[in-house]
Amino acid sequence: MIIFSLVLSTFMLSIVLILLMTMFSKKTKNWREKSTPFECGFNFFNPAKMPFSMRFFLIAILFIIFDVEIALILPFMISIFFTSLKTWISISYTLLMVILLGTIIEWKENSFEWKI
User: Fold this and answer.
1) What is the chain written as a DSSP string?
2) Which long-range contacts (CB under 8 A, 24 or more apart) does 107-114 make?
3) pLDDT at res. 92
4) Distance in angstroms (rounded) separating the CA atoms of residues 79 and 75
5) Which band of pLDDT confidence, cut at 50, 70 and 90, is reported for residue 14?
6) Which of 12, 28, 66, 114 is the least crowded, having the fewest Cβ atoms under 10 Å away?
């Protein structure tokens, strides 16, 4: 009997709280901007053949490249314990030079500048 009364009182309390919430909640209009889908700065209802800015593509490619470089560099630090120092220095120097040269080439091509 005690369990039934606890369940009933919990149920009644939740109903009262829900009713209070619906009575005193702030009613907002369902604005047109809130109900339209929005993704990546494009209007969803525009034609699909709309030209895509190549700057978004270049930023995504740069992110993927630097993400892969970090994935290569982090485990490389642990590998110093398993290889000879001369081999580790030559491989790390080569990897860092490839990264540096790629960054310099992208800098000279103005890939880092955001133009409209």
Assistant:
1) -HHHHHHHHHHHHHHHHHHHHHHHSPP----HHHHS-EETTEETTS-TTPPPPHHHHHHHHHHHHHHHHHHHHHHHHHGGGTS-HHHHHHHHHHHHHHHHHHHHHHHHTTTTS---
2) 111/58, 111/62, 112/62, 114/55
3) 83
4) 7
5) very high
6) 28
